[in-house]
Amino acid sequence: MKANVDLALAPGVTEVATPTAGEMYAEVMRLLPQTDILIMAAAVADYSVVDPTGGKIGKSMEDLSVNLVPTTDILCEVANEKGEEQFIVGFAAEYGAAGLERARMKLIRKHLDMIVFNDISRSDIGFNSDYNEVVILTPRGETRVERAPKETIAEIILDHIARELRSRREEFLPVTNRLLRNDASPPECTGYAQG
Length: 195
What we know:
This protein has 195 residues and is α/β, with parallel strands linked by helices. It has helices at 21-31, 74-81, 96-109, 150-180, and strands spanning 37-40, 47-49, 68-70, 87-94, 114-119, 131-138, 141-149. Residues 175-195 have low confidence and may be disordered.
């Protein structure tokens, strides 16, 4: 699934067209059970029009109002459904130091594994630029990535995801090693039928 951008399809990637926030939500939730790592980088509309006309509105209307309703918070819904082994990354396009604090709160509130903050108050990075500067936040800490080409930023984000997944695996390794040793007692499973 992608935003309204003109990029060549990467080899091995399946593209799913989702022209509306509702369609994107449905597809993300449909594909979530088979997803190991989900990177939610698209800026999905926060609101949608209640009754879209489907065509041009002429100037003959003197008073015009548009009724909006909030769209589903896809990232929040994903976090509610995520499995223990899934890794969920969100993005926070926010303004300045206060935006970084909002990104920290979003990481906690939405139970994300990682969030990438980019400061959209600057004109030399982010939107309409080939460069970006981000802060990668995880429950373990924060890493500031100085201004660099967007491709480099993407590689650094992917490296951080790999490191986080490696750390998770290493945290569980000592328990697994104890269970594999001959002198280790198996865990006690009470409440389960023996068979």
